[in-house]
TrEMBL record:
InterPro entries: Epimerase_deHydtase (IPR001509), NAD(P)-bd_dom_sf (IPR036291). The lineage of its organism: Bacteria, Pseudomonadati, Myxococcota, Polyangia, Nannocystales. SUPFAM superfamilies: NAD(P)-binding Rossmann-fold domains. Residues 5-233 form the NAD-dependent epimerase/dehydratase domain. This is NAD-dependent epimerase/dehydratase family protein. Pfam families: Epimerase. Belongs to the NAD(P)-dependent epimerase/dehydratase family.
């Protein structure tokens, strides 16, 4: 139990909540972060904790020397990433270097370091515009961005290399994650952070398109719990198969959807965000739809429930209240 869990991107938004979930369960944690978007203050809670080590480093570089002496490692949670769909369209090679090449190299490092499990933050972006909503893991993947394509390619690389090297890989297809520590100032931030920050200032919210587009919004604390379950759960023995393949057919590397299953229209989110801030009167403005926007998104959640025992618990209004309180 004293073997460490390496969390790349551990000083970031999802990463710091993951550190909290792992520490609450008594796990020793090593954070690797380049602090490009991660913040030391996100980890201030564990400043004096001997069970948490923080290493500054880039997953694209040589991680071996940076992590020497900090093992043994039981598992790796790989969250360090280029996280923006928009940026991936403008700079696809940078996205590829981080989201595919560094992920593959880290898997090889994990195998050499003796880690038995590798949990990877994939994305709902692997589906592109889903044929059916809520979308099942068995649906075809048809990413619309280099970001989604690299996440899908990384799933496939992990699916090939994990078994070869004796590392169990778990790809979590995260839907729209929101919560405290998601930077509202970033142009790449999520809609919830943007809406709450504006509502707090009493400013009108901007809705791109007519607001009928839908998303599955999941609270970051729930995502951190799913990641912790993925670290601790022996998926092969529980399901008799690899994650995502619930058909009983031949093993196929796939991801597990991590969402709530609830499909929410952006206009309804705008109203809920304003309610959470007591800014009902501030109004909304409509702007042209974003290019490459998907119309509908929500997760079918049965696979994560069956293989991890995971269900999202935090209701939207409660999650918005907690996020607004942090801002
Ligand atoms: C999210 C993820 C992305 C990827 C993708 C998969 C974030 C920040 N991005 O992109 O990483 O996984 O899902 O499909 O979580 N909107 C407004 N007004 C605003 C801001 C946003 O109307 O001020 C709309 C936007 O047009 C979109 C929705 O809100 O319809 C969600 O936007 P987003 O940027 O939070 O996330 P998304 O789904 O584009």
């Amino acid at each position: 139990m004293n073997d460490a869990v390496l969390v790349t991107g551990g000083a970031g938004f999802i990463g710091s909540h993951t550190v909290a979930a792992l520490r609450a369960a008594g796990r020793r944690v090593v954070v690797l972060d380049d602090f490009s978007t991660g913040r030391r203050e996100n980890l201030s809670e564990w400043a004096g904790d001997p069970q948490v080590a923080v290493v500054e480093g880039d997953v694209r570089g040589a991680v071996e020397p940076a992590l020497a002496g900090l093992g043994p490692f039981a598992a790796v949670v790989h969250l360090a990433a280029q996280t923006s769909v928009v940026r991936s369209l403008a700079a696809p090679i940078d996205d590829l270097d981080v989201n595919l090449r560094a992920t593959t190299r880290l898997l090889l490092w994990a195998a050499a370091a003796g880690a038995r499990r590798f949990v990877f933050a994939s994305s709902a972006a692997v589906y592109g515009e889903p044929r059916r909503v809520p979308v099942a893991e068995s649906e075809p993947t048809a990413p619309l961005s280099p970001y989604g394509a690299a996440k899908r390619a990384a799933e496939l690389y992990l699916g090939c290399l994990g078994p070869l090297h004796g590392v169990q890989t778990v790809c979590l297809r995260l839907f729209n994650v929101y919560g405290p520590r998601q930077d509202p100032a970033s142009p790449y931030s999520g809609v919830v952070a943007t809406f709450l920050a504006r509502a707090r200032r009493g400013e009108p919210l901007t809705i791109f398109g007519d607001g009928s587009q839908t998303r599955d919004l999941i609270y970051v604390g729930d995502v951190a719990r799913a990641i912790h379950l993925a670290v601790e759960t022996d998926l092969v023995s529980r399901t008799g198969d690899v994650p995502g393949d619930m058909s009983g057919g031949p093993p196929e590397p796939a991801g597990l959807n991590i969402g709530t299953g609830r499909e929410l229209a952006i206009v309804d989110l705008a109203a809920a965000a304003q309610r959470a801030c007591g800014a009902e009167g501030a109004g909304v403005r409509f702007a042209p739809a974003r290019a490459g926007e998907i119309a509908r998104s929500a997760a079918l959640t049965q696979a994560a429930a069956a293989s991890l025992g995971f269900r999202a618990e935090v209701e939207l209004d409660e999650g918005l209240r907690r996020t607004a309180a942090w801002l």
